[in-house]
Structures are given as C-alpha cells and as structure tokens.
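Hi there, hope your week has been kind to you so far. Would you mind checking whether the tokens look sensible for this chain? I owe you a coffee for this, so here goes:
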Amino acid sequence: MTAPTTHPETFRRAVDSLDGLPTRAEIELRTMRPPQRLAPYSAAWSAEVLASAPAPGTGEVDDAEVVVTGRLVLLHDPEGQDAWDGTLRVVTFVRAELDPEHAGDPMLPEVAWSWLTGALEDSGAAWTALGGTVTQTASVRFGDISGPTHATDLELRASWTPTEEVLSAHGEAFAGVLAIAAGLPPVGVTTLGARRAGRSG
C-alpha cells in the first residue's frame, strides 16, 4: 500500500513504515479497504496466522490452518482529535480460538491485555492514550457446518496514539501479539508439537 502523494507527509511516512513491515513466515499481512468515516485519512491491513510456516521456496502450506486473524488500522487527522491526544491513531483487532481448557480461565482477559502492553514495550514503540477491551465469545454450531460443536473465541480490541511518525515498532508489536495469540514459539525455536491458540503460559 502506498499513500497518494496528495496525502499529508505524516500519514504517508506512517503508511510506508507499516507497509514494509517484515513478519515471520506464519503471519500473512494484506492490504484491505480501510474505514472511511473515522478520520480524514486511513489505511488498513488484514492478518492471518497459519499453524505452519510455508515450506522453503514454495510460499504455500498444504492444508494450512488459520489459527488467528486480525486487523491493523491507521487513522490520521491533521487537526487531531481530543480522545487521541495526537494526529495519528493505531487501531488493532485480534481474534483467536481458545483451547477448551483455557476458555474458563478468569485471568485470561488480563493475560491477553498483557500480551499487547508487553509487545509494545518490547518493540520500543512510543505511545500514549492506550485503551481497549478483551472479550470471550462462545458459539455452538448446528447442522451441516464444519468445525467443533462448541467453540470459544478471544477477541482483543485496542487503540493507541503513537508519539512518532515512523510506526515500524508499532507494527512489530501487532505482529508480536498475533504470534503470542497463536502460540507460536519464538523465532528460531522449534517445538515437538504445535501449541494451539490462546495458551496463557
């Protein structure tokens, strides 16, 4: 995604820094149509985390399972907005299906929120006015539909105001939350068995 040259320099610099964000092989980022009414300028990316990384040289995973989905939205209002305390706003959404044994953990919302705050701190991002929600939703499937009969999803919604125009660290934090939610091991570490999304350990 490249912001048109008619857009403000602040917005174009922020978009460029996110658009070129390198991610680990299991995470796929794609540009998507951004919301139109939240700010004069906006950009958005969708994210999917695969259970397995693509085989080297192929770019494809046989029967790849998407274990986490997400969205990253960048908003810019040159005049600023009172709730933002700035002219840029990063909005994120992450959804992961939980293992049954973790679905009833009363501490899970606090743990999930710490994924975000920890990722922001670890990435070195500079930010203010952070807020959001963590929600657990339960669903029951009926009839001819694939998937388990009972499922519980964790949804993390958050937004914050970056205090810098180059947002690479903020994108890294978003990718970090996706990886944690998917239970991916640290880069360079392999495990004997894949962890399912939503583990809080």
Observations:
- The radius of gyration is 18 Å.
- The first helix runs from residue 9 to 19.
